[in-house]
């Protein structure tokens, strides 16, 4: 090995060692932050707050080592990807450290132990978030994409617990006479632990990028259009979105009181444009399209308010488009309605960050 190669490897080892040190300290602080909440341990909370100062200094030192490496070696290929990923990870670790600090501040203000069910969920979310982060960081340091993928699965368990944890907290607020500050603090802790698990997912993606060069795939969205009868507007919106952004996700449409068949104007429009609807396609009810394994990212109401007709999942956004504002009336034909919908759809895709070429 040449002298240059020896120097390069030594610098890489120094960066890995510093990253491992930061990772261990951040994970320890997160564990202690959760314990301080569960045990209402103000002493531990204050000690963890102080320890975060050292973490911040370690992160600054890590960034400095990365910048020195770039200046000395002008890296390319896998070495450049590694340094780029480490710089992103330092941001993620600093955020997790900040989350731990915020949890400790909650622990210092809690007056008494939280209800058993709430404590149980705090403990579970803390365990899953910490485990996901630990696996993800080990995968990065070892250059193991398979370990990184495992971490994403563990992190998803934290996200799955969150909605139920919030429901239990609401129930506790209704049945248990307890200071509002304690319950609001628990809600903040739930959110911060979920955010910690999300940083574990980011770490996993950086591992895949550093090792394989693969970037995160563009987000794919599940979108539902809803109107009164599913005879024209909502189905036409689904068709327009599928035509303009076919790779943006999966799209559906439905009606509150669906007709037996689609409007003849819609069918004629599809024939003119060469759009082939499935032979068994027919208007569907909202109940039918809600029977899916996963939630919709966006539900768009066309002349109706979707939130009045079903319980909106935690991760679903609901929009209401008033097409009368665009000059659409009951007599508007399919061609003009299509153009009005396309303007709205393009605005929605821009808001979601979807590009036409995707």
- Supply the CATH class of the largest domain: Mainly Alpha
CATH topology of the largest domain: Methane Monooxygenase Hydroxylase, Chain G, domain 1
The CATH superfamily of the largest domain appears as: Phosphate transport system protein phou homolog 2, domain 2
CATH architecture of the largest domain: Up-down Bundle
DSSP strand tally: 4
Helix percent reads: 55-70%
N- and C-termini, Cα separation: 45 Å
Can you tell me the number of structural domains?
Answer: 2
Radius of gyration: 26 Å
Tell me about the largest β-sheet.
4 strands, parallel
User: What is the helix tally?
Assistant: 10
Strand residue percentage: 5-15%
Shape: flat
Q: What is the averaged pLDDT score?
A: 91
What structural class do you assign from the helix and strand content? alpha/beta
Extract low-pLDDT stretches.
none
What string gives the helices and strands in order? HHHHHHEHEHHEEH
Please state how the strands of the largest beta sheet are arranged side by side: 2-1-3-4
What does this structure look like?
This protein has 358 residues and is an alpha/beta fold. The protein has 2 domains: 3-212, Methane Monooxygenase Hydroxylase, Chain G, domain 1; 221-352, Rossmann fold. The protein is 66% helix and 7% strand. It contains 10 helices and 4 strands, in the order ααααααβαβααββα. Strands 2-1-3-4 form a 4-stranded parallel β-sheet. Helix 7 (233-244) links the parallel strand 1 (221-227) and strand 2 (249-255). Helix 2 (42-73) runs antiparallel to helix 3 and helix 4 packs antiparallel against helix 5 (145-175). The two termini are 45 Å apart. The mean pLDDT is 91.
């Amino acid at each position: 090995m040449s002298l240059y190669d020896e120097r390069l490897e030594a610098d890489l080892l120094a960066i890995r060692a510093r990253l491992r040190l930061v990772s261990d300290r951040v994970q320890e602080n997160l564990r202690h932050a959760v314990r301080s909440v569960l045990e209402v341990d103000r002493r531990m909370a204050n000690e963890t707050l102080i320890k975060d100062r050292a973490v911040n200094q370690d992160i600054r030192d890590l960034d400095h080592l990365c910048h020195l490496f770039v200046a000395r070696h002008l890296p390319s290929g896998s070495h450049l990807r590694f340094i780029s990923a480490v710089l992103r990870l330092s941001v993620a670790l600093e955020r997790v450290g900040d989350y731990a600090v915020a949890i400790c501040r909650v622990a210092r203000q809690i007056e008494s132990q939280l209800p058993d069910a709430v404590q149980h969920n705090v403990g579970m979310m803390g365990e899953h978030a910490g485990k996901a982060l630990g696996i993800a960081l080990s995968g990065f340091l070892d250059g193991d994409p398979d370990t990184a993928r495992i971490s994403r699965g563990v992190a998803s368990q934290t996200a799955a617990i969150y909605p139920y944890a919030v429901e239990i907290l609401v129930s506790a607020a209704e049945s248990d006479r307890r200071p509002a500050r304690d319950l609001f603090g628990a809600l903040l802790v739930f959110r911060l632990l979920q955010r910690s698990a999300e940083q574990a997912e980011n770490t996993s993606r950086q591992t895949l990028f550093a090792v394989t060069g693969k970037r995160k795939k563009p987000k794919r969205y599940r979108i539902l259009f809803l109107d009164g009868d599913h005879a024209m507007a909502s189905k036409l919106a689904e068709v327009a979105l599928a035509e303009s952004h076919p790779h943006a996700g999966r799209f559906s449409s439905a009606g509150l009181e669906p007709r037996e068949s689609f409007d003849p104007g819609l069918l004629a429009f599809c024939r003119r444009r060469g759009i082939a609807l499935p032979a068994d396609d027919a208007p569907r009810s909202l109940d039918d399209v809600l029977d899916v394994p996963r939630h919709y990212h966006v539900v768009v109401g066309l002349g109706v308010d979707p939130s009045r007709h079903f319980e909106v999942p935690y991760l679903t956004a609901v929009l209401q488009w008033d097409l009368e504002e665009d000059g659409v009336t009951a007599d508007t034909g399919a061609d003009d309605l299509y153009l009005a919908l396309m303007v709205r759809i393009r605005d929605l895709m821009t808001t979601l960050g979807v590009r036409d070429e995707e």
